[in-house]
Each structure stands twice: as structure tokens, then as C-alpha cells.
Amino acid sequence: MNVLILGATSAVAGEVARLLRARGARLYLLARSSERLGALADELGTSVVGFGAVDFTETEATLAAVRAALATLGTVDLALIAQGDLGDQELSEVDFSEAERQLLVNYVGVVAQLTVLGPFFEAQRSGTIAVISSVAGVRGRPRNYTYGSAKAGLTVYLQGLRSRLWPAVAVTTILMGPVDTPMTTGHRKNALFATRQRAARDIVRAILRGRGEVYVPGFWRWIMLVVRWLPEPLFQRFAFLSGR
Prior knowledge:
By secondary structure, the protein is α/β, with parallel strands linked by helices. It has one domain (about 1-240): Rossmann fold (3-Layer(aba) Sandwich), CATH 3.40.50. Helices cover about 50% and strands about 15% of the residues. The protein has helices spanning about 10-20, 35-45, 60-75, 90, 95-125, 145-165, 195-210, 220-230, 230-235, 240, and strands at about 1-5, 25-30, 50-55, 80, 130-135, 170-175, 215. Helix 1 (about 10-20) packs across helix 7, helix 3 packs parallel to helix 5 (about 95-125) and helix 5 (about 95-125) packs parallel to helix 6 (about 145-165). The N and C termini lie far apart (about 45 Å).
């Protein structure tokens, strides 16, 4: 199995890479931090056939890096896009540069990658594109609506891409709930936070089963079913939903 992972140094993506290595995958890794990327590549050893550092907010550099990765791999069975950044919600409300950065990282940069990956997989007529989105995109909440709006747009984009590439190519949208990782260090943890190991196992399982859209962990499907359809005047009365 030839696998391209974008955002490979995220905690969850790293765990996915380890699980796929155990299945004999050949891995090509792209991420922003060259230091962390090098450390991950060293750990994964000979399963890594290539890696490169790239800032996903720099579109041209990103497109070039993705094309180089595809050329190295030749045939690609799976491309996993795992980049994302919660950012600073309150800052994004008063500073457009922060809002723009969140949109670039979580939506625009991913769409840029998909404009290369989509045609590649379409021509190949096989394989899976998997993208980590978020339950934050299901309903706008004051605590993370800039990030959530980017993920909502991404989820809709993937719905269209999935129908366009069907049935030859699978497109899996991973609607992930909060995970205990460095990205959520400043967040108070509760029982709804998954471990990175559980999230990675659920992601690999969804990919192997060819799922179109999956909540990770699965219990978020039922939580968001209620949150999504709760009337706004009622939603706003519940501080644990509509508060900061």
C-alpha cells in the first residue's frame, strides 16, 4: 500500500502512520516542521520512501510538494490530509490576519491539495482520499466558529468531491471530535476527549471499510444529531453549547 500523509506530524496522523507501517505501507510524509518530520521519518524507518517540509499556507509550494510526492510514489492507494489548527478564536474576531490564517490552514490549503489529488486519483481510477474535518463544522459555536466555518466548508467540498469521483475513488470525511493532543493543550479535558491512539484506530478502520463520512469517535454522531437540529433560540439557552 502506497500512502501519502499531509500534516504527518500531527499527533493523530503520526499514530495513523504507525498503524499503516505495521500493515506494510510505503509512506511519503509532508508536514510543516522539518525537525518533527525528520524525527518521525527516523522512527518509521524504511517504510518512509520520502518526506518534505512545507508551509501549507503557501499554496504554490504546497502544490509543488504534493506533485513531487505523487511522482515518487507512482501509484497511490491512500492520501490522508490531516493538517489543521484551532487557532485563537477571540483574536480571529478582531484581527483579520488570524481569521485569514485559520481559513488558509483549515480550508484553502486543503482545497489546494485536493485540486492536485482529485485529478490524480480520477486518472488512476482507484484509491482513497481521506480528510480530517471536525464536528466543529456541524454547528457554529462562539468558542470556535472561525475554525468551525472552515471545517464546515471543507466537509461540503468533500461531499461534492465524493460524488464526483464515485464509484472508482473513495473519499472519506473524518468528522473528528476533540482529541487529547498538543493542539488542545489549553483546553479543559473531559470524558468526550479521545486519545490519539483511539482516534487513529477509528480512522484506519473507516478508511479500510470505505466509509464516506464517519464520526471519530462514533458517539459524536448521536451528540451532533441533537446539536445540529436544536432550534437556535433553545441552543442559545444552554451555556455548555453556546458559551465560550
